[in-house]
Amino acid sequence: MTKELFKGSIMFGPVPAVLVTTIDKEGKPNVFTVGWTGVACTHPPLVTIAVRKERLSHENISASGEFVINLTTREMLKMTDFCGCRSGRKVDKIKHFGIELEPGADIKTPSLKKSPVALECKVRSVTELGSHDLFVAEIVRNKVEKTLIDQNNTIQMGQAGLLAYCHGEYFTLSRQPIGTFGYSVARKSVRQARHQKKFQQKKVKKS
Amino acid sequence: MTKELFKGSIMFGPVPAVLVTTIDKEGKPNVFTVGWTGVACTHPPLVTIAVRKERLSHENISASGEFVINLTTREMLKMTDFCGCRSGRKVDKIKHFGIELEPGADIKTPSLKKSPVALECKVRSVTELGSHDLFVAEIVRNKVEKTLIDQNNTIQMGQAGLLAYCHGEYFTLSRQPIGTFGYSVARKSVRQARHQKKFQQKKVKKS
Questions:
Q1: In what order do the strands lie in the sheet containing B163-166?
Q2: Cβ contacts of residue A114 below 8 Å, gap of 6+?
């Protein structure tokens, strides 16, 4: 391939366009969209979200020390886009969309009922970087839509129809995966065993 | 939706499965796969990669203070999976796949010729978190495949056929985007103008 050179900027993706729920000091919830999120560590399970200082959600997370990452689907596209463009200081986005919330399990912040997977997070650190502050947070509880869990207790994330964001545009994922981690180096039997093991998650209780 | 509760773990995505190139003290290149990567800040443009301490690439990046994030495509799936499973300490992955490299523009580390977009990065900080260390790095130069740049100097990332990773499986993105950032709140003319502005990148020179 022949390349053109550009000055350094964020040409990166696909990233998940997630809806992050937060609460203020009185417990009032807000929701906003975050594309600048990623995994920071497997053990302990840590994620990052980058948030502009001026955001209401920055204020909320700084005060409460917690938030929820709600994965989004193609059906949630309009809500996801809107919540990244309108501030909770001006619009009650939860009322605007009639969003249904579910109470927190291990934290006070609620999650979105419509989201197939929600990650309850407790803040570990925050670092000022420039336009954004970077929050590193531990995932303390996962909530997973029951219909994504098959008879082998395997989570079929592909069936969720997750939304992806890349360079200013939204995309969908293929319904079927095109490979499983480790497939290129494993014999078929090993690969199948690893696949089963990987997808067997420890279920703790019903919500 | 009805949810099941699980203990906190990484159920997160889609993320980009990127190939990261590094060099050792003698300048010998290595390549490894990173799914735990994300954007940390827009201005300055900062990204994160989470790397296990025992990785050869951890050693390389710590010594050189730089690396390249190479976005991957569906055609690069096997290489991407393999480079996440095999260590550069045991296999010369670049020789193994006959990978063609391109010299660095602003740094010493080369990029992958086959990658549609490569981000040259200089390390800002590293933080120990547990199984992984988190590197925060500044994107100092972008290399973009010419055929992705249309006549309006707009980068058509959707045409790259980027690879996505989610919960142990690889997926492809839809070729056509299903929305543009801001579409839910803008009139058509405004949306088009914003779209144009957003996608006009400052081109600096030809490679």
A1: A179-180, B169-172, B163-166, B15-16
A2: A73, A75, A76, A99, A100, B1
Contact state of B131 with A43 under an 8 Å Cβ cutoff: yes
Q: Let me know if residue A189 belongs to a domain.
A: no
Residues from chain B contacting residue A184 (CB–CB below 8 Å): 78, 81-82, 85
Angle A75-A79-A82 from CA coordinates, rounded to 5° = 145
On chain A, the residues whose CB falls within 8 A of the CB of B198 are: 168
Scanning A9-67, the segments in alpha helix (DSSP H) are: 56-64
pLDDT digits (tens, 9 = 90+) for A77-132: 999 999 999 999 999 999 999 999 999 999 999 999 999 999 999 999 999 999 99
> Does any domain span residue B172?
yes
**Residue B131: partners with Cβ closer than 8 Å, 6 or more residues away:** A41, A42, A43, B52
Nearest to B169 by CA among A107, A87, A162: A162
What is the domain extent for residue A132? 15-179
Examine residue A68 and state whether it is found in any structural domain, yes or no. Answer: yes
Cβ separation B184–A15 shorter than 8 A: no
**What pLDDT is stored for residue B189 in this prediction?**
66
- Per-residue pLDDT tens digits for A39-88: 999 999 999 999 999 999 999 999 999 999 999 999 999 999 999 999 99
CA A121 to chain centre: 10
Q: How many domains does chain A have?
A: 1
Q: Which of residues 169-188 of B touch A (CB under 8 A)?
A: 169-174, 177-185
Q: Are B10 and A42 in contact (CB under 8 A)?
A: yes
| Cβ neighbours for B192, distance < 8 A, ≥ 6 positions apart | none
This model of the complex carries an ipTM of: 0.91
**B1 within some domain:** no
Q: What is the CATH number of the domain that holds A53?
A: 2.30.110.10
